[in-house]
Amino acid sequence: MTTTSSLGEREMTDMCLGVPGRITEIWHEDGAAYAYADFVGETRKICLNYLPDLQVGQYTIVHAGFALTRIDADEAMETVRMMREVGVLPPEPSEVVS
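Request: output the structure for the sequence above.
Response:
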């Protein structure tokens, strides 16, 4: 979402980061396939209608609540590692220095 000031200047933009999500539970409801996916500690309900053969334990990239791309576990872990390295994700708790 982009908000605009009264002067027409852009103030803020929210953007999807493409954090990999691991499927933790799958069910069908009202003719649609849904899942819970763990996005680095945050669980979200997603729709699997574009990738109905995803299985528990597999990884996906989600946009607007829909699983759009299947990725393997190695690619998911590397993506999360790089996102942490550049600061778009917080460090793992074991990496935090008190």
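The longest strand covers residues 21-29.
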